[in-house]
Amino acid sequence: MNHPLINFNRNIVVMSQSSTCGQEMAYNKTKDLVKSAVAPFAGVVENIRDILDRLQKFAEDLRKTYERLKKTIEEIGAAIQRAAHWVGSMADICNDKIGQPYRRCRQVFDDGENRCK
Q: Which residue windows are coiled coil (predicted)?
């Protein structure tokens, strides 16, 4: 190769390296600029994530407490139902043995009225 061609080739290489260096510098500056712009929001985003995690844990605890309370209320309701059934069966037994209170009372007054006649 002759000298002007070698010089032209060298100039192309230097220009290409210079262009690559300029692109890298622009890329790095842009990256630094974006990082600087986003940095204040990173803390906010982290705080929001922390709050959301705490809210999810609270909601899970609340759900578990609700389930326990629901189960307890169902058990109390079942116990009341069993007690009412028992009281009802005891009333039936008493009514069978000694008669129903209204009928007994009515019978006493009817007997008293009949004796007075």
A: 45-79
Question: Could you give the number of structural domains in the chain?
Answer: 1
| Host domain of residue 14 | 3-116
- 99 pLDDT more than 90: no
Phi, psi of 100, rounded to the nearest 5 degrees: -75, 140
Spatial separation of the C-alpha atoms in residues 102 and 116, rounded to whole Å: 21
C-alpha torsion 44→50→52→58, nearest 10: -150
CA 64 to chain centre: 9
Q: Are 9 and 1 in contact (CB under 8 A)?
A: yes
Which amino acid is residue 2, in one-letter code?
A: N
